[in-house]
Write a structure and sequence with these properties.
Elements lengths: L9 H17 L5 H7 L5 H14 L4 H16 L2
Helix pairs in contact: 1-3, 2-3
Amino acid sequence: VKLISNTRKRQYAEARFIAIGIMREEQTCLTLKAMGKLFGGRDHSTIIYANETYNDLYGTNKEFTEKVNAVKSFMNKNN
């Protein structure tokens, strides 16, 4: 629920960045507007910003990359 809430706490914002980044990698058929709707009615520009942040941090920030890899590993095990 916090993932789609309006909270700007770093831990939740980072989780949204990860979720949005992975979705953009995996689900390119969703429009930015549709993704914004899924994440609590956010604007398409928020989705663009989250995806850009994901792309900037993934591979360059060790802690962020580890979190992303953990989420991807969890997803692969549960599919």
